[in-house]
Design goal:
about 120 residues, alpha+beta, HIT family, subunit A, 2 helices, 5 strands, about 20% helix, HIT-like_sf, Histidine triad (HIT) family protein, HIT-like, Histidine_triad_HIT
């Protein structure tokens, strides 16, 4: 498989890890669009939100719980943060491995979206 995020999970591409457990990895975006910009990914390869199956729902819920904890750990839970999932080509999804962008640390203003070119 030629998936950038799967390579990060396996360790063949380095990342600045913020959080990791058996199912989820959180790392800093290499082109941050905000003072706090991390990516939350499942270690299981799922191409996009459109491919999520019923058996994946506990994993998706856990990703949201991890987002809450990481926002707290990074000090943006009180001031506010944005959690974004791009799904499909018109959204800007370029990395076909489901993920969330968590952004915060400043007033974010109106954004049309965060493309995966920031990943």
């Amino acid at each position: 498989m030629d998936c950038l995020f799967c390579k990060i999970v396996e360790g063949s591409i380095p990342s600045q890890k913020i959080f990791e457990n058996e199912r989820i990895l959180v790392f800093r975006d290499i082109q941050p669009a905000a003072p706090v910009h991390v990516l939350i990914i499942p270690k299981k390869h799922i191409a996009s939100m459109n491919e999520v199956q019923e058996e994946d729902l506990p994993l998706i819920a856990e990703m949201h719980q991890v987002a809450q904890q990481v926002a707290k750990d990074l000090g943006v839970n009180e001031s506010g943060y944005r959690l974004i999932n791009n799904c499909g080509p018109d959204s800007g999804q370029a990395v076909h491995h489901i993920h969330y962008h968590l952004l915060g640390g400043a007033k974010l203003g109106a954004l049309t979206g965060i493309s995966d070119s920031h990943a």
